[in-house]
Amino acid sequence: MQEIKEETKMKIIDFTWPAGFYSDGINAGLRQVKNDLGWLYSKVPAQAAGVYTTNQFQAAPTKLTKQTINAKHVLQAIVMNSANANSCTGAQGEADALAMQQLAATKLELKPALIGVASTGLIGKTLPMKLIKAGIKQLQLTKTTAVTNAILTTDKQPKTCSVQCKIAGKLVTISGFAKGSGMIHPKMATMLGFVTTDAAISGTQLQELLSQQVDATFNQITVDGDTSTNDMVVALANGLAGNQALVPNSPDYSKFKANFSYVLGELAKKIAADGEGASKLVEVNVHGAADKADGQKVAKAIVGSNLVKAAIFGEDPNWGRIMGAIGQTDAKLDISNVAIQMNGQALVKGSIAVDFDPTAMKLALAKPKIIIEVDLHNGVASGQAWGCDLTYNYVKINASYHN
């Protein structure tokens, strides 16, 4: 199904690869049945940008990809696996990440410096390199979406998004896919995201754009407050759409930026909705903040509160949990003038309770998406964040992750 967003001249389309991009995904034996190894490839070197976890125990493949991109902001392929994070694996892990890079380079007849590596899964075990080596030899260059499944761990489904727009008269496609379900609290989570486009834009400009937009999208989601060792979001732009290279003062730059941001935002929301054990997506919109930083801070504090998340799972309109989360931040507040709504039902005005219809509130909180609106009445800035409820299944999944 296609949809037109007139304000950004955006066409939302079924997932499709931009011009010149190919991929594949297979079961290499790291998991019993599901795809667990794949790659993404551009037929020409692509301008590249990346953002990475701030966890001090950064995994070997994450460090290697960061070093590779930072060297020249150019990649032509990324090889990726699930089931094993290759994290906290010492010198052997670093050697294995380099080996994955070299194996993919040999198969694709490229220089290793053009290959990124991404891994996700169980921390602390070395990669089964015999399986990895045999698997990479099997990978092909196809237009399938199998790679979107190959990176999943506890996810219930892949997260994908594709849009198209006209840039200087040329049709540009932006497509992204991601995984993430648990250990989601990005500063940059166990989360991987990949965005591809056939637009022409320099690597340094793409890096600036990605860094900006990640702050407003992926860094505004939280499932459980834990930041993983392997998180990264990588963007590739191969220029095969044929547009003149985009720069901030280009006539269509703002349009491209809006489309690019939309893809990141949709992937972020899909990760939040697929949180481990989740039954509800939670969106928080903060208004009336003193500045953007305060708006974002308050929004993320609310979606990150375990007490708020548990109340939403129980469909309990316990707005005191929300007030508590707001008050724990250092945002500038008028403590006598905060207002709160949940799915359109008013709960708080002037920082005190308002009467509500219990039947209407019960129906509102039974919905699979809960939208919390907060007005701080202390400025004109806003903020937004996404998360999920905290369920019994979250504990069940994470109590037996190693099994």
TrEMBL record:
Catalytic activity: N(2)-acetyl-L-ornithine + L-glutamate = N-acetyl-L-glutamate + L-ornithine; L-glutamate + acetyl-CoA = N-acetyl-L-glutamate + CoA + H(+)
Sites where the protein binds substrate: T153, K179, T190, E276, N398
UniProt record, GO biological process: L-arginine biosynthetic process; ornithine biosynthetic process
Main location, first listed in the record: cytoplasm
Biological pathway: Amino-acid biosynthesis; L-arginine biosynthesis; N(2)-acetyl-L-ornithine from L-glutamate: step 1/4; Amino-acid biosynthesis; L-arginine biosynthesis; L-ornithine and N-acetyl-L-glutamate from L-glutamate and N(2)-acetyl-L-ornithine (cyclic): step 1/1
Keywords linked to the UniProt accession: Acyltransferase, Amino-acid biosynthesis, Arginine biosynthesis, Autocatalytic cleavage, Cytoplasm, Multifunctional enzyme, Transferase
InterPro entries linked to this entry: Arg_biosynth_ArgJ, ArgJ-like_dom_sf, ArgJ_beta_C
Sites marked Involved in the stabilization of negative charge on the oxyanion by the formation of the oxyanion hole: T120, G121
SUPFAM superfamilies xrefs: DmpA/ArgJ-like
GO MF, any single term: L-glutamate N-acetyltransferase activity, acting on acetyl-L-ornithine as donor
Active site residues according to the UniProt entry: T190
Signal peptide location: none
Coiled coil location: none
EC number annotated for this UniProt entry: 2.3.1.35, 2.3.1.1
Cellular localisation: Cytoplasm
GO CC term (a single one): cytoplasm
Assembly: Heterotetramer of two alpha and two beta chains.
Protein name: Arginine biosynthesis bifunctional protein ArgJ
Protein's organism: Loigolactobacillus backii
Gene name of this polypeptide: argJ
